Amino acid sequence: FVPFLQRLKMPQSSLFNARKKWQEAEAKVTQKNNARNLRTQKAQKPQKELPDREHWEALLVSDWQNLIEAPASVKADFRCVEIAVNQTWKALQYAADELRDDPVFVLPIVERCWWALECLGENARRDEEVAI
To answer: What count of other Cβ atoms lies within 10 Å of the Cβ of residue 48?
Structure first.
């Protein structure tokens, strides 16, 4: 009779483990969705106004390599770097360190092309979501 009770306890513990794993997976999905929402909010949030933004955006749309010779303010601008990186992940290496360290900024880039991992900053490389 005792072994029968022990067998009943095993499935309960495995159910508990499955429930725990399910909750962990749900938490990761929620965290990922929150990061994406934050990214879209960040992109929509008015940034420090960049002089000649339209000029630099037009240059970067025509050729991402214009980012190489761009001033530091352009390399730190979210929208300008995003325009260049949408053409090729290689543009990420010329972005400002603060953007390359931002996991929220680099996650979609790494999802598109894992080669971009070599251009990331240390904080972004340590981020579990980006590394996976």
So the answer is: 7
Q: Is the whole model's pTM more than 0.70, yes or no?
A: no
Among 86, 94, 89, 131, residue whose Cα is nearest residue 113: 89
Least Cα distance to 82 among 132, 116, 114 occurs for 116
What value, to the nearest 5°, has the Cα angle with vertex 104 and ends 86 and 83?
20
pLDDT (tens place) for every residue of the chain, 132 residues total: 555 555 555 555 555 677 778 788 888 888 877 777 776 666 555 556 666 889 999 999 999 999 999 999 999 999 999 999 999 999 999 999 999 988 888 888 988 888 888 888 887 878 777 766
